[in-house]
């Protein structure tokens, strides 16, 4: 037996329901994306991009001078989460600042002690998580700046 259904007419209520559902989805997605963006953004990269652009050529010059030193630097974490710096410049000393990439934790100042020729170890461990390490390594009046992400 074949049943025939009577088609219902498309009314203004149907159209209103479709519009309300569509805009509810759009608004829900926008609110979700905005909350995720605000929750994961920890601050600015530079406070004033114009001033940073004026310093850019100087930064390139400093980078070329640093590259001319020919130093090889590697930073890592040991098993106790102490930062270890291996370098081919024995007799160097270093200081560093560990920054949380999203700014959710305060910066940590780190001092290093030599543990072997060309090897420096932090005096304190880093807390768990991802950290951006900004290190300054000095020897013979010359500075080498390095940055490394450590997990």
Automatic annotation (TrEMBL):
InterPro entries xrefs: FixH (IPR008620), FixH_proteobacterial (IPR018037)
Pfam family, one: FixH
Annotated protein name in UniProt: FixH family protein
Source organism per UniProt: Sphingomonas colocasiae
Organism ancestry: Bacteria, Pseudomonadati, Pseudomonadota, Alphaproteobacteria, Sphingomonadales
């Amino acid at each position: 037996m074949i049943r025939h259904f009577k088609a219902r007419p498309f009314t203004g209520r149907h159209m209103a329901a479709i519009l309300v559902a569509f805009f509810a989805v759009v608004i829900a997605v926008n609110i979700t994306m905005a909350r995720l963006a605000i929750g994961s953004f920890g601050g600015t990269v530079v406070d004033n991009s114009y001033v940073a652009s004026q310093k850019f050529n100087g930064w390139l010059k400093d980078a070329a001078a640093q590259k001319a030193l020919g130093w090889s630097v590697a930073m890592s974490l040991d098993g106790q989460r102490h930062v270890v710096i291996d370098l081919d410049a024995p007799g160097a000393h270093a200081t560093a600042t560990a920054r949380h990439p999203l700014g959710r934790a305060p910066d940590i100042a780190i001092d290093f002690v030599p543990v072997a020729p060309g090897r420096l170890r932090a005096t304190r461990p880093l807390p768990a998580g991802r950290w951006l390490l900004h290190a300054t390594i000095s020897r013979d009046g010359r500075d080498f700046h390095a940055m490394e992400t450590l997990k």
